[in-house]
Write a structure and sequence with these properties.
CATH topology: Immunoglobulin-like
Order of helices and strands: HEEEEEEEEHEEHE
Largest sheet: 4 strands, antiparallel
Radius of gyration: 16 Å
Strand content: 35-45%
Distance between the termini: 34 Å
Helix content: 10-25%
Number of helices: 3
CATH class: Mainly Beta
Length: about 170
């Protein structure tokens, strides 16, 4: 339990200090290109459960980051299956998405988005996000401290503003 709280605190501290950033990683051996953003972390008040949400970028795009879907790293919800996210926007709009990946105990959930859902996340500030694990129906609803996170990262992608990392 203490280890989970410490890990989430460290990730949160890292993300706040390096907030809203896109990185292009080029593998020097395979020459493959990977895009990732710093993500946004939501935790329960007691720190026992949490979720890190981030844009997933098109893996075929070499020259610029292109938003494709949402990825989630989930901690403290046991094994995952049929995960669901509900996004409530500050203007009252909302939508629900369900994960497409199979049952796993690794804490991974992936969500496809329609063009309209991408547009909303890229242009309208968020008010709250609810995550539900369909395997055990545990859920968490959180207001966002960074309601414009997806907007800012989308603008960074559109403007091709990113850092390059190689190893």
């Amino acid at each position: 339990m203490k280890k989970l709280i410490f890990t989430l605190t460290m990730i949160l501290t890292f993300n706040l200090s390096n907030a809203q950033k896109i990185t292009k990683f080029v593998d020097e051996m395979s020459e493959e290109v990977y895009w990732y953003d710093s993500g946004i972390i939501l935790t329960t008040e007691d720190g026992e459960r949490g979720i890190k949400l981030n844009w997933n970028f098109d893996s075929k795009s070499i020259d610029k980051p292109i938003v494709k879907s949402i990825g989630a790293r989930v901690v403290g919800f046991s094994c995952l299956e049929d995960s669901k996210l509900i996004f409530l926007f500050e203007d009252g709009q909302k939508f629900t998405i369900k994960s497409w990946n199979k049952f796993n105990c690794d804490g991974n959930a992936w969500f496809n988005l329609s063009s309209e859902q991408k547009r909303l996340l890229s242009t309208v500030p968020l008010k709250k996000v609810q995550y539900t694990n369909g395997h055990n129906y545990k859920s968490m609803t959180k207001a966002l401290e960074q309601p414009n996170y997806f907007i800012v990262v989308s603008e960074l992608a559109d403007n091709e503003e990113y850092t390059i990392k190689t190893e």
